[in-house]
Sequence to fold (328 residues):
Amino acid sequence: MKSLSVILIFLVMLTRGVQAYPVSDHYDGEKFFNPEANVHLTLWDILKWKMEMNAAKWPEHLANKNYPLPVISPTQRAVVTFINHATFLLQLPDLNVLTDPIFSQRPSPIRFMGPKRVREPGVLLEQLPQIDVVVISHNHYDHMDLDSLKNLDAKFHPLFLVPLGDEKLLKEAGIQNVREMDWWQEQVVKEHKIVFTPSQHWSGRGIFDRCKSLWGSYFILSPDFKTYFAGDTGHSSHFSNIKLRLGSPDLALLPIGAYNPTYLMKVSHLSPEEALMAHDDLGSSFSLGMHFGTFQLTDEPIEEPVERLKKAGRENFVVLDQGDSKIF
Ligand code: ZN
Ligand code: ZN
Fold:
């Protein structure tokens, strides 16, 4: 009788998936979910969207301007460099952090398919200074590029911070120094507290792993400087919650592209106007736009996110050219 029940439990676990994490307001025992909105994006939705053929034509190739890469000096609190897409190099006085690094030609499981980059990274991987920490917001190919991660691991052996459910992907790629985090968990590195914070998005690299791993953003509390990296996200109350719990950042890195068609993208991506709302919700002192201008993922023209952001005329929410830096 006892062995029968053990077999039954095992069979139930097999069919339902093993519960790997505690059930929470964003995990039901099998899948992760957003507390405020459901992201319903089926294969049929994507097929219908692609058949609409409303995508603006992007240029094949754009040249970057040449910018010198500054090295942080002892009198500076932070130096941030926009590399491309959602990749920033953040130099703090004793810590270099890289966000969602992608240096590959395409954010895709197949090397010769998927959107091809229209410009080179503003800083090449070979030009980077020592990287101590890599933070990864979720496992979509444009944010978790395993080729880039393997190269970074070989060159710098940094600590990789990933959302719950993603550690095994990196370990399978041969990367050992990985820590996976749930929302509001923190990792202390030297004097810096790195908190994994919520976002409103989804995850998946194939058809069978939809929402099997978490997504999120990062708040880095350094002794003299607070940085927020939003990852991929729609607009929700998580921005004001983050401000309530951790305070307002000195610098917020917020996505402004991949919003058309809105009926599909609004829940999981920000328009420039929604990014401005997020900037205000956070009470951010200074924000930089990201997630535009490198890979055509959605229908809007390449220059539109920046134009719409500029229209708002905020001096403390701007974009940098790929390769350009801002010193704090
Ligand atoms: Zn994504
Ligand atoms: Zn993305």
Observations:
- The chain has one domain: 2-327.
